[in-house]
């Protein structure tokens, strides 16, 4: 819905830092981490601190001896003993506030902020060294696991304070970048961060959400090109890969851009350096490893004590079970959204019904479908799924090049261009028909949704108009589909073929048409309409590709990146985030939908990829490498960053199924969902998403509550609108506020939701207690 013609400018600014404000030791440690990634040094340095071998997660014997020496030294220090007593008192107050009463009420939660918050909007917020959990809440009655005694056994006071301070700063950094881009940040974590700084109280009106358009009504035309907002005639100019928006040409000549949070590379790299240094910090790594071990063990105890109570709760819910709760395939590529049998059946059908149709061109002459197959020396009647050869197997393990070749049916790129591309001689008709058949199956199932990715390469700005016209011409809207745009990281290929002069031109081709369609939608009606059904952007390609460039504030800007070397992963993520952030702010001003940044991350390659995504992404796909870094894994838990995991895909490419960390992540409380990635390559059945759930349930012995929790996570992670999440999938609207978990829709036991919430509050309270200690605040104990 567009705002009135008298558009009010929303002044938002990017908080800048000076390099002098950052500790030099932090910057140097971050550079060592990056240097280790690039040079693969053999010496034991900073990088070895967070590359954790499974058989020895904390380190060698000398590390344990060092910790013991510090413990003994602390016992002899009167000051340390005094501080430990203070922490014990603070912990006892925090724990008493976390014990719920027996009269349970559904706690408050936002459709995009999970888990729920301990603070009602009207409730006062404690300041300064107040207890971490400001207000007790009412929860269901079940058997709880409570640890009493020392403030943090096994970790020295200094290490505890250092770890808590660093982790809190990392969360503040993520919150800053999430708010700027209208990404989601959990309300609970945000409220605890407010109690840590003691300077401001949390307000509901300060919360930011992404904006997704609700689906058209039953009597509405999803392809209606009327009622388009008016043009604003702003001027957009790309400088160094960043768009600058001016009211008119006079403002541009005076260099007076509109008040938007234009990003600052130096500030971003300083924030990135803090996280890089943090994951290489020994005390923080030790603390996070202990807390993660505790979370896993605590869930095992919870499951042992409450599994039957959860099952009893689920059995009492009428008309709801695992089969009819909503599930979203949060990570799937449109070019492989069908299974191999579906593709084979479609190829045979088109050959049988349209053999004389001209489908391509060769040497200026039209080529019919029959002639195309004759040129390939094959008869579609004889094709089988084996001869189609699109399924990944053992031969693709750690061979991403062979996996990409599987997109070519029978190894022929001509068939890929004909059946799996949007731009070809027949205008992508066959590809559209396949997708519509997949959408029809989803609509018949009713309870399954999917978020297919379509590619924009950045070769030319006309790609967007072509894709939008393809979408509208073939009427590809489906209430069970939400579309995403994936940007392959293949600038080096385009540069070597002289298609692009520099990386800045690639960013301009990708994002400038979106700014023009947002500013002047009546001049770009088709693209404006298509963007209403797009919910986010993805960054895709082989993460294991090595880059020799170390990303820093000294890196060349995109206009200067004119050589054939591909920019590193972190470089791609920053400039994609910067453009999406500015685009979201501009679209928010106009009352239009916003976009999430949801890159592939952590499937392979450097651990630093996950650091960049922690700052810039709303959620990620894969996240396998979190297992290697306890600090990052704990941060992803505290920030409740959703992770779309694809165990069957990983099993064929990078990690055996039995070693996949999904079950471990789920038990610890990370927000994980199941996704298919590429059904054409990895699945056999008609319902690929159900195949993922079924195999995971059998291999890891997941309970019904586990499966429904994963399904609930998938809906929260997705780009479904708040209306769909509330009325169809998750929440029950009561008065004007969304209320907590509705078991009649999610089939997730209230006991499980209370356990997740209380556990997160407990972990956040450890950070708050340390940050509010007299030693750090300067207050008298």
UniProtKB/TrEMBL annotation:
Of which family is this protein a member? Belongs to the metallo-dependent hydrolases superfamily. Adenosine and AMP deaminases family.
Its protein name is AMP deaminase
**InterPro entries named in the record:** A/AMP_deam_AS (IPR006650), AMPD (IPR006329), Metal_Hydrolase (IPR032466)
Instruction: State the Gene Ontology terms under molecular function.
Output: AMP deaminase activity; metal ion binding
Which reactions does this protein catalyse?
Answer: AMP + H2O + H(+) = IMP + NH4(+)
| Keyword Zinc applies | yes
UniProt entry keywords in alphabetical sequence:
Hydrolase, Metal-binding, Nucleotide metabolism, Zinc
Alphabetically, which GO biological process terms does the record hold? IMP salvage
Name the needed cofactors. Zn(2+)
């Amino acid at each position: 819905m567009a705002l009135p013609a008298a558009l009010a400018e929303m002044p938002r600014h990017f908080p800048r830092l000076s390099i002098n404000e950052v500790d030099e030791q932090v910057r140097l440690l971050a550079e060592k981490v990056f240097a280790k990634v690039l040079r693969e040094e053999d010496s034991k340095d900073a990088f070895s601190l967070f590359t954790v071998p499974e058989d020895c997660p904390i380190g060698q014997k000398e590390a344990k001896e060092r910790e013991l020496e510090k413990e003994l030294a602390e016992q002899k220090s009167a000051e340390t003993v005094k501080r430990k007593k203070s922490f014990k008192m603070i912990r006892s107050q925090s724990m008493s506030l976390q014990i719920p009463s027996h009269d349970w009420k559904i706690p408050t939660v936002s459709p995009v902020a999970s888990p729920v918050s301990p603070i009602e909007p009207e409730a006062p917020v404690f300041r300064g060294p107040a207890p971490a959990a400001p207000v007790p809440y009412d929860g269901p009655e079940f058997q709880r696991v409570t640890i009493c005694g020392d403030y943090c056994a096994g970790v020295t006071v200094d290490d505890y304070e250092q770890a808590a301070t660093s982790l809190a700063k990392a969360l503040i950094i993520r919150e800053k970048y999430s708010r700027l881009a209208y990404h989601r940040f959990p309300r609970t974590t945000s409220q605890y961060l407010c109690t840590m700084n003691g300077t401001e109280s949390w307000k509901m009106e300060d919360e930011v959400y992404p904006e997704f358009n609700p689906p058209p009504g039953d009597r509405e035309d999803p392809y209606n090109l009327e009622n388009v907002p008016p043009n604003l005639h702003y001027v957009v100019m790309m400088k160094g890969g960043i768009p600058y928006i001016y009211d008119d040409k006079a403002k541009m000549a005076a260099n007076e851009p509109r008040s938007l949070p234009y990003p600052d590379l130096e500030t971003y790299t300083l924030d990135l350096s803090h996280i890089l240094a943090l994951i290489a910090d020994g005390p923080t790594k030790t603390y996070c490893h202990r807390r993660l071990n505790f979370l896993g063990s605590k869930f095992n105890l919870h499951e042992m004590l409450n599994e039957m109570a959860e099952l009893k709760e689920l059995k009492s819910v009428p008309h709801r079970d695992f089969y009819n709760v909503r599930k979203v395939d949060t990570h799937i590529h449109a070019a492989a959204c069908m299974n191999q049998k579906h593709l084979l059946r479609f190829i045979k059908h088109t050959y049988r019904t349209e053999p004389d149709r001209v489908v391509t061109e060769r040497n200026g002459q039209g080529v019919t479908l029959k002639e195309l197959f004759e040129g390939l020396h094959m008869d579609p009647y004889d094709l089988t799924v084996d001869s189609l050869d699109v399924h990944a197997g053992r031969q693709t393990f750690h061979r991403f090049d062979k996996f990409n070749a599987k997109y070519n049916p029978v190894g022929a790129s001509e068939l890929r261009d004909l059946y799996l591309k949007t731009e070809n001689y027949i205008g992508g008709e066959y590809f559209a028909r396949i997708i519509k058949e997949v959408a029809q199956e989803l609509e018949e199932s009713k309870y399954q949704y999917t978020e297919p990715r379509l590619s924009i390469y950045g070769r030319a700005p006309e790609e967007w108009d072509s894709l939008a016209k393809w979408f509208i011409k073939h009427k590809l809207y489906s209430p069970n589909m939400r579309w995403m745009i994936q940007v392959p990281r293949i600038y080096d290929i385009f540069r070597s073929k002289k298609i692009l002069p520099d990386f800045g031109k690639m960013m301009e081709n990708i994002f400038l048409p979106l700014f023009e369609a947002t500013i002047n939608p009546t001049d770009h009606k088709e693209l404006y309409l298509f963007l209403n059904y797009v919910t986010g952007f993805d960054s895709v390609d082989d993460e294991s590709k090595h880059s020799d460039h170390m990303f820093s504030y000294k890196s060349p800007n995109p206009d200067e990146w004119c050589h054939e070397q591909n920019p590193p992963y972190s470089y791609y993520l920053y400039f994609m985030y910067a453009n999406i952030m500015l685009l979201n702010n501009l679209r928010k001003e106009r009352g239009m939908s916003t976009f999430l940044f949801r890159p592939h991350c952590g499937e392979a390659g450097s651990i630093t990829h996950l650091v960049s995504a922690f700052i810039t992404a709303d959620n990620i796909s894969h996240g396998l490498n979190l297992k290697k870094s306890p600090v990052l894994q704990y941060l992803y838990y505290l920030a409740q960053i959703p992770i779309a995991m694809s165990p069957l895909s990983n099993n064929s490419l990078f990690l055996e199924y039995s070693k996949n960390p999904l079950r471990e992540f789920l038990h610890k409380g990370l927000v994980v969902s199941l996704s298919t990635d590429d059904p054409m390559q990895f699945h056999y059945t008609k319902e690929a998403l159900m195949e993922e759930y079924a195999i995971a349930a059998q291999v890891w012995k997941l309970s019904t509550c586990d499966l429904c929790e994963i399904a609930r996570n998938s809906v929260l992670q997705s780009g479904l609108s708040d209306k769909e999440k509330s009325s169809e999938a998750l929440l029950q609207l009561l008065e004007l506020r969304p209320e907590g978990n509705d078991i009649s829709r999610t089939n997730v036991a209230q006991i499980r939701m209370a356990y997740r919430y209380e556990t997160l509050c407990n972990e956040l309270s450890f950070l708050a207690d340390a940050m509010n200690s007299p030693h750090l605040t300067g207050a008298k104990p």
